[in-house]
Structures are given as C-alpha cells and as structure tokens.
Amino acid sequence: MRTGRDAPTVAVVGLGPMGAPVARHIARAGFPLQVWNRTPARAEEFGDRGVAHPADLRARVVLSALPDIDQLDEIAPDPVVRRWAGHGTAYLVVLSTTSPDKVRRLAGRLGRWGVTVLDAPMSGGDAGARAGTLSLMVGAAPEAYACVEPVLRSFAATVELMGPPGAGTAAKLCNQVIVAGTLVAVAEAVDLGRRSGLSGEQLVRVLRGGLAASAVLDAKAAKILHREYGLGGSTVNQVKDLRYATGLADALGARLPQTRHTRALFEEALRRGLGAMDHAAVYEAVRAEGGTVRGTGPPPA
Predict the structure, then answer these.
(1) For 10, 30, 211, 260, which has the most beta carbons within 10 A of its beta carbon?
(2) Is 106:68 a contact under the CB 8 Å cutoff?
(3) Residues in domain 6-phosphogluconate dehydrogenase NADP-binding (predicted)?
(4) Any catalytic annotation for residue 172?
C-alpha cells in the first residue's frame, strides 16, 4: 500500500480524542482521507473530507475508532457494508478495545461481502494519539496485515502482528490489566502518602525517580493529585475493558485475582457517577471519602 498519488483512500469512523488525531496523522502521511462522526461538528475541521452518512464512505480501508464493535454494528449494518464493498472497501480495522469473540463475529459478517476484518486496538492514550506514538496490537491474516501495515504505521510507533483476528484484542486486554492495576496502585500510594502527612507532589517526584516510575504515573498523577479528571480515557471504558478481560479469563481458566479487585474499584467509581470522567477518577473509590470532583462532562461522541 503506497502513499502519494497511488495511495488508497482511508476512512476514519469516530472522531473522539483518539480518532481525530489518528485521522490527522493519516492525512499528513499522504493518504487520501474521509471521515465520519455521529456529531457532525467534529468532522468540520476536516473540511470536505467529511461525509454525511457512513454509507457515503468510499474507501479502500475503513478504520473504526468507535468505543466498541456494538457502535460499529449500529452504523454499519449489512446494507451499509454491502455498499462499502461495492465502492471498493477491502479492509475494516477495529481500533477500539473489545472482545476476541466480537472481532471474530464481525469478521464472519463482513466476510460475506468480501471485506476483511483486522483488529488493531490502540495503547498510548490521547497523548500518544496526538504524538503519533501509539502502540498497536494487530490480529490479522499475514497478507491482510501486509496490505494495511503502512496505514497503521502512519499514526503508531509500535505495530505488532500478534496472530489471527482476535489476537490483537487479547493482547490489548493484557495491556488493560496492567494499566488499570497500575492506576489503582498509584491512587492507593497517593492516598496512603497523604494520610501519612506527605506532600503528594513530592511523593510523585520521588516515585518517578525509582522503580515505581511508569507511563501511567507520568500521565495520571497530576489528575489524581488535583482531583481534576478531564478526559483522556474514561472510567466507563475502563470498566468495559476490565469486564472483557475477566470474561476472557473465565473462558480460559485464568484467575486474575488482582484484576478482579481492580474491576470492583472501577465499578464503584462508576456507581459514584464518575463514568464520564477520566479513569484516574478511580482515586475517589480508593479514598472512599466525599469531596468536590471536577471533570469535563460526557465522553466525546
């Protein structure tokens, strides 16, 4: 797949905090671009690259940056997929975190129209999406991966073919086990430090200089320290991912004891009405006390 005059058209569906910067990187790399978003205003920055309805897309490769496959199924039922196929769509790439079973079901449905499904869930958060440094875990047949890989590398620094469709999603759930567990550990450390009379800012500085340093600590410590949970990744999506992870564990006989406790804490944050806030809001469940919490409202469409 080549960039420049002969580059295939790429469509991005879903222009939230991840999808919009991904689309910008794809355009900068020289791929002709189309975009669609449920809230049309989000597509306005892309000018005439926006389409009014998903069925209007005419792209060789369609990337779904929607929250899950459920939302993709809603906007791309069989008649829409049939129209895409008629306009030359050959590949659909799922960038969201979902379940391996959902990926395989989607692959079966779209395969009836000759559209090949790849799963390439993203890790790196909205900051990684803006910087073009995401990590992608890909599930695909080798020949499909070879065709789509140049598009993926236009917005990601690490791209790994993990196995057949569904394997990328399984790898992303492993990633989410670490992210969620580390985020809870950071929240617990800050809570314990504050109860011990320590400065939270000073504690975070010293943690960053030792073995406790992590990308999660760097990205989320300030949100926890200031209890300001403007969106990166949302609490509701973190709960979704952990439910998928524990569901996969149940199917495979894995215990995941720490992850199950982590999931319970995030679900408590959800019950506290923090689902639309950044997943660092799990701190409110960890500290289990009242107080004023600031966020940014519902997740972007």
Answers:
(1) 10
(2) no
(3) 9-163
(4) yes
Contact 270, 235 (CB under 8 A): yes
- Between the two ends of the chain, the Cα-to-Cα distance in Å is 30
**Helix, strand, coil % over all residues of the chain, rounded to 5:** 55, 15, 35
Which is nearest to 140 in space by CA: 106, 113, 179, 178? 106
Q: What angle do CA 219, 273, 15 make, to 5 degrees?
A: 55
Q: Which helix (H) or strand (E) holds 205?
A: helix 200-208
| CB of 121 closer than 8 Å to CB of 168 | yes
Q: Residues 109-139: pLDDT tens digits? A: 999 999 999 999 999 988 899 999 999 999 9
Q: Which of 102, 172, 220, 223 is catalytic?
A: 172
Mind listing the pLDDT tens digit for each residue in 133-171? 999 999 999 999 999 999 999 999 999 999 999 999 999
